[in-house]
Task: structure prediction
Amino acid sequence: MSGITPNEIKKEFLKSKMGIAGITILIILISISIITTITVPVETFQEWNNPGSWITYPKTAIPIWVNLFLIEKIPEHQIITEPKIETTSNDEINLSSYQFNVNFNYDDFPNDFIYSYSSEYANSPLFQMSVIRPDGIKLELVSTSLPHSNLKTIHEDRIFSTDAMIKKELTLQSEIFEFKINELSSEGIIFSKTEVNQPLKGNYIFLIDLYGINDESQIVESNLIIGGKAFGIMGTDELRRDLAIGLLWGTPLALFIGLVVSIASVVMGLTYGVYAGFKGKKTDETMMRFNDVIYALPALPFLIILSVTISNSIFVMVGFLMIFGWVGIAKVSRSMSLQIKTRGYVEAATMMGQKDSKIILKHILPQLLPYAFASVAISVPAAITTEAGLSFLGLGDPSFPTWGQILHDANVFGAAARGLWWWIVPPGIMIAITGLAFVFIGNALDSIINPKLKR
Amino acid sequence: MKKYVATRAATMFGVLLITLLITILIVGSNMDTILKQGIVFQVRSEIIENPAIAESFSSVKEFEAFIDKQTDERIKNLGLDEPWYSPQRIGFTMYKIILLDFGQATFLTSDLGSSNVRDIIFEKLPRTILLFTSATIIISIIGIFVGALSASKIGSVVDRITSSFAIISSSFPVWWIGMLMIFLFAFTYQIFPARATPDIPSSSPEYLGVLLYHMTLPLITIVMIGFGSWAYLVRNFMVGIMQEDFIIAKKTMGIKQNRITYIHALKNAAPPIITILALSLSGSLGGAIITEAVFDWPGMGRLYFEAITVMDLPVIIGSTYILTVFFLVSIFIADLLYGYFDPRIRTGANP
Result:
């Protein structure tokens, strides 16, 4: 207000440690947003709420880096997509075999394993699945023939570790193990030492053989999932979603909500307040009464009612947040413009017969710009936390993976009670860090504009 | 002064009416459908309960026609045949609500089983006031003390810690800290119960004690997140006052620093502090919705949340009204206090 030039503000700002810290965090967040939008496939965003598209991921898996701090390593979730293929032909019989290498160096059994494939064949080829363990023992798992078809057909199927035929095959080979295997799950048998029921570390080879007679039969596409209890940098949630992806997509969304709401509210509040202050008299009185009404509305209950009855789309929500955002700024900018109005050059401009709009734009608004920037920065965190709060209550836009939405899901599935800290802690920290960046910037700007406030 | 009070009171009442009107306008159309469905349901269940009527019909058509006739009659009797936005109906609804007659809840009941919205609200309200008023009082006591302490030693370690704690804590959502606290102190270390709703009936004599025990975790959380920004606020007021001439004069007179800080400076910082206290008391009621949902505290906030989830409109309208009344009353008190302490406002001069 005391006529600081933009250059001085910039200079002062670069001197303040807080301002630099805020800007640094903000730049990091913006880079995360840009990198996310470019590198992470958009499908993950659109399919966030479609459980079908996350089926290959594990349920509530802990982040993998936890293993660095543990002596007993938690099995990681492994998705192996490219098997080693060998084909041999012997007169009538074609054998195609597919090898999956599984490196298993953990101190606990995997959750399960799933082999899904689609094969192309005619007639009825023989399908065999076996595993060669690190100790050289070969266990037969499945031996079956694929459904008969006269014409060339494509058959898709999944083999789960819980399938009864695997258990049956394993029971037939029970003499390998020195303990009773009847009660154990098949992954608990396959990955077990022969003497005691403890995980056997080393390299496993899962072998799939397809015997076709006369005709060529092959597996077109296949993958093997060894279901672990650890996955990704941030783990997964109850619906098997990769939390890292949710957190990444949350960044641009939070910045979008925060910035749009605060910039729009500041622009609205500034225009409203300055106009009321400049016009004065009856106009001022009426406009301020209206302002009082909005100010006195309890914001959160109204936001809740609006989102329930009208729409919970994220864009509509941004609009609702603006309704309650501009009021305080209008009050302050009104009293500021009341002061500026009395200055000599404004009075001179009025006397020269300049238009109101020109005086406001040329003489009053530029004086308020530093305050406006500080207000934008200060009101961003409130917008982000309010949106997160609404999402947390389950009133947000379910089609967008915002941080509040992730925390809502965490609360619904009782993450706190089940000790799933990786589901609760990171989204909150992201909300806080984003808020902090803007609070830092706002405070730094504020102390430059009102040096009296500090010291 | 009288004129000032009168205009403020009139404005507040106007705001209250407008809030009520907006609420009714937003939920009105839904309310109409729900009320009409309720009547159809009522008619049908009466017929099912009374086999004599049910047997007197010869065909399904006749049966349907009877129901339609009955429903129409009742809708007319209740005045529901006019559109919900007709002035009479809105006026009548508003009149009833101002007299605290909120009608019957559609789904929710009070702990004692009453489905009268007023009973439900007046059962929950004291608990919210208990939790949030005690939290606000603790916050302001700690805040004023810490704020004054750091204002007396600007730039000291205490000051720096207070300021940074204030800034950092203000960017954490309270409800998220609540989730962490539940995670830490209810499940990892089982000190406090996770759900803040006591599991014994509210009529039993130990109820209050159990309620207070269940209140500890939410209380700690709210205080932890809240006192930092309070201390920062008090500090900033105090810093301004400490630079005033009369403080410097007192210093040169040789009065002890502590005495100056806690008696002379704090006394002069009191008006804005009290004003903000009044405002934050009401502000905390609005913020209660999410906090109570996290801790499952059986107060107004959770009631509101439950009402929203099942779309129990009479409860929504009633709670919004009560929340608004509280909010407005505290704004009003804050205004009056401010006007009382700052003569410039009272006389109508622009600040």
